[in-house]
Design brief:
Distance between the termini: 21 Å
Largest sheet: 6 strands, mixed
Oligomer: single chain
Helix content: 10-25%
Low-confidence stretches: none
Shape: elongated
Number of domains: 1
Order of helices and strands: HHEEEEEEEHE
Strand content: over 45%
Number of strands: 8
Mean pLDDT: 91
Amino acid sequence: MGLFDWLTGTKKPPAGVVARTPAEVHAAILAVNRPTAPFVVRDGAPEQVDLVAEWRIVDAQWYEIFAKSGLTKVFKVLMRLDPQKREVRAVDQEWTVEWRLGIPSLSLSAEAFRGQKVAIEFGTAYAFTEQGSYGQVYHYKFATSEIKKPLQDAVAAAGWTWRGVSFGKL
């Protein structure tokens, strides 16, 4: 494995593993879904790709004094199967939207990322809930490896290469 492969998260199958058909690889990736997983793997037609693994990290709203606020954070891995090269090309996307509506202000901030990401994040916040009581409005922990490693393992077990895409076309 070269340095660039390491930087992009490219994983090759173990020696001697027989390459499966595209339909079998597609099914193997979908089989990563499980009830205890914090993410879901689904069809990628809305994003114009083959498959999407999506983790809704935070989706919370709370009240402050004279204001209402919210935070939404989503991480996705977009995947496209390349049968000629026996590769699953993957790119990470992350969106964060924070907003605050109060008297006399309105603020909104948004952040987006596309490429390959390795991260461990955590956060928590306390505020007034929609029921009017003070308490925890969100708590999360997130590691990109929790979503990517099972996908990479499924692809490698099917005899295909997981190719992380940082720049260019998926």
